[in-house]
Design goal:
single chain, 148 residues, Nuclear Transport Factor 2, Chain: A, six-stranded mixed β-sheet, 6 strands
Amino acid sequence: MNVKSLIFFIALMICESLVAQQRVDTEIRNAESQELNAVLKGDTIALFTKYWSPEMVVNTPANVVGDIENTKKSLRAGKINYSSMTRNIERITFNENIAIVMGNEILKPQGNNENAGKTVTRRFTNIWMKSKDGWRMVARQATIISVK
């Protein structure tokens, strides 16, 4: 193999890797968006069967570490209920079949929520794992940084 062929081969491999990375990045951004829409709609079927892993753990904004059962209880009690929520992804990092998503989110709780009617800003980390069933959230952390 001559030098030109080798350089072309390396460039082709880099391009293929970048395209694959971009595709996976888009998959995660779509999963984030769809999961957020399911939260806003209170679509528990989608959340529990499509987006959240049965083994998911959560470090909640109330400074409590919980699991999927605690999250189900919070949903049923109306404590995960928002009139609006935007999630601003600042970074996505991949490590094999794991995606780590970090950023901030601005939400307006309603109903039986401690901060109902206020604007809450939080930092978040969502951890997704790809399995044969697709991308599922396996861990989440959210910290309130301001309430207005």
